[in-house]
């Protein structure tokens, strides 16, 4: 594992039951400052891959290693997870306390993120009453507050309006500049094509193409194809 690696995935097989693999031979890397798009149709194995990386599956043959100065990662799930009786601010404080952030650092970081994602006015309200889009923004803020070396973000654009999407993209770009790596699962292929450095295209539980867009195009047999056209050709 090199100094630049933030995540190295080498999964020979993984699944929800012992010796019953859902994914096979999934191998890729995410390096410092790199954004990798995890792409594939529904049921292709993207969620299983993420759960395997996070160590949430009963059965896994292989490894997923986290690197970077702290070795810390943040996971932003597709479906928001909120606590019924905690305010937005209390959600953030809980996340910060889990990783031992100082009070000063927490307050500064939280304020910056709440302003960035336009949640400052609802900081003392209960997210269980928020819209899906606002809950999704809360999940993003919880993940970003930790300043990890690697982000694993599952379908981050669902429920976000155009302004919130722009806020997210700007913040991801800033985190890349800081040296964080980003693994992002998404179906928004036109956006992924514009912002990702590399892609892992999964179908039927295995990687069918991996690398920069030029390499995905080569696998699809069309040097001029869009990511969407490559998706259709390969899955």
Briefly, what is this?
This protein is of the alpha/beta class and 235 residues long.
Task: Describe the protein in words.
It contains eight helices and nine strands. The chain has a domain of 66 residues. With 235 residues, it is α/β, with parallel strands linked by helices. α2 runs parallel beside α4 and α7 packs across α8. β1 and β2 form a beta hairpin. The chain is globular.
Keywords:
235 residues; alpha/beta; three-stranded antiparallel beta sheet; 9 strands
Task: Let me know the number of strands.
Answer: 9
Q: Strand-residue fraction?
A: 25-35%
Q: Shape from CA axes?
A: globular
Looking across the biggest beta sheet, what order are the strands in? 5-6-7-3-8-9
Uncertain runs with pLDDT below 50, 5 residues or more?
none
List the SSEs and their pairings.
Blueprint: E1 5-15, E2 23-31, E3 35-39, H1 46-53, E4 59-66, E5 73-76, H2 88-98, H3 103-116, H4 132-144, E6 150-154, H5 162-178, E7 181-185, H6 189-195, E8 198-203, E9 206-211, H7 213-220, H8 227-234
Parallel strand pairs: 3-7, 3-8, 5-6, 6-7
Antiparallel strand pairs: 1-2, 1-4, 8-9
Helix pairs in contact: 2-4, 7-8
């Amino acid at each position: 594992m090199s100094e630049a690696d933030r995540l190295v995935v080498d999964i020979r097989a993984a699944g929800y039951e012992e010796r019953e693999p859902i994914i096979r031979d999934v191998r890729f890397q995410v390096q410092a400052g790199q954004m990798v798009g995890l792409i594939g149709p529904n049921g292709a194995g993207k969620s299983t891959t993420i759960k395997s990386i996070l160590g949430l599956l009963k059965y896994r043959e292989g490894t997923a290693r986290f690197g970077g100065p702290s070795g810390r990662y943040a996971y932003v799930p597709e479906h928001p997870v909120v606590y019924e009786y905690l305010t937005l601010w209390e959600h953030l404080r809980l996340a910060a306390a889990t990783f031992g952030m100082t009070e000063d650092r927490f307050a500064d970081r939280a304020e910056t993120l709440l302003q960035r994602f336009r949640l400052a006015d609802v900081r003392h309200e209960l997210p269980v009453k928020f819209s899906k889009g606002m809950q999704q923004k809360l999940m993003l803020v919880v993940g970003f507050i930790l300043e990890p070396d690697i982000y694993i973000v599952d379908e981050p654009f669902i429920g976000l309006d155009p302004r919130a999407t722009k806020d997210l993209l700007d913040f991801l770009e800033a985190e890349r500049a800081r040296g964080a790596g980003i693994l992002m699962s998404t179906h928004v292929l036109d956006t992924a094509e514009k912002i990702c450095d590399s892609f892992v295209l999964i179908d039927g539980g295995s990687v069918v193409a991996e690398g920069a867009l030029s390499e995905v195009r080569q696998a699809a047999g069309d040097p001029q194809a869009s990511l969407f056209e490559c998706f259709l050709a390969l899955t």
